Amino acid sequence: MHVAQVNFLPAPADIPPEALLARWNTLGDVADAVASTGTRVSVVQVAPYQCRMTRGSVDYHFIPTTPDDGGRRVATVLGDLGVDVLHANGLGFARQAHEVSRHRPDLPIVFQDHADRAPPWWRRAQWRRWYAVAAGVSFTAPELARPFTDAKLFGPRTLQFSIPESSCSFNVGSGEAARVETGLHGNPCLLWVGHLVTDKDPLVMLEGVAQASDRLPGIQVWCAFGTSPLIEQMHRYITADPRLAGRVHLLGSVPHARIERLMQAADIFVSASHRESSGYALLEAMACGTIPVVTDIPSFRAITGLGAVGRLWPAGNPDRLADALVVVATNASARRGVRARFDEELSPAVLGRRWTDAYAQVIQASRVGTP
Known about the structure:
Layout lengths: L1 E6 L9 H7 L1 H11 L4 E7 L4 E5 L2 E6 L8 H10 L3 E5 L4 H10 L5 E4 L11 H8 L2 E6 L6 H5 L8 E4 L12 H8 L6 E5 L8 H11 L7 E5 L6 H10 L7 E5 L3 H10 L2 E3 L9 H8 L3 E5 L2 H7 L6 E3 L4 H12 L8 H8 L2 H20 L4
Parallel strand pairs: 1-2, 1-5, 2-4, 5-6, 6-7, 7-8, 9-10, 9-12, 10-11, 12-13, 13-14
Antiparallel strand pairs: 3-4
Helix pairs in contact: 1-2, 2-15, 3-4, 4-5, 7-10, 8-13
């Protein structure tokens, strides 16, 4: 079986291929996971330049397209490669996949959700026509598919899969050594990794930490973040609440390679997100054996096994976050099973097997009724 994972989101012109794979690490991680099963994988990346490279056992094809191309260039590359199935990254690229299908109607297409939203009702007739080419669709959790299925955007024969958006190669490592290296401390030591934006609700996280501090006097929280439109509000909130004095450490942007050591040093990974298509930072935390205390949203329920490890709490409720932090911090066995859950359900090997099985199913379904 030969799979083409196609990324229609154009690569930035000023980032060379090797650097792009480092920045868009999921692009290579998913390909590597599938390739580890023995499946042949080619990645086709739309880009303003043409290039071919090989990393490990995966071939990468960077190809330029034009607005009036109509999917012809991608379809030609896929035909030359002789692929059996197209894995389209992002439900938001249905038009592009539909255009490719016009040139390669024999090629089954499976879409992977990447935090996509269903189109508004007045555009759904067009999107239904585009999604008609979908042999399969994948979401991290079945509930995330509901806005699409309720709008009847997928055909009755479209197969649906529940597969995590990605995985990672992080490891547990030595927590003690990681603390010495990173300088993280606290009892418990909390880590936040995520943008300081409204949907991720960092202010509720701060309030939860403040409330928990009466029962957890040694609590410390370390925040790594990229975009930060709420940074001034964060500073004001921290300054205004004496319970947070000396407890909150704003690390700012941290290189991805450094995140693994931060995860290893932390006791608890905390998230206040209201919506996530998956939760890359949560996956990374669990790979490091860090206890998740995260919101009770569909993707986090799927990743934690309905809270089988760590603790789930209602989004927007700092009281419940404080209680969850106290329960986890005072439970000596809370860390047990976190990495085991990752190995059993979320590891690259498991991800690769689940995708390989999904590809086989859509290929088989596409052959039904074919002479």
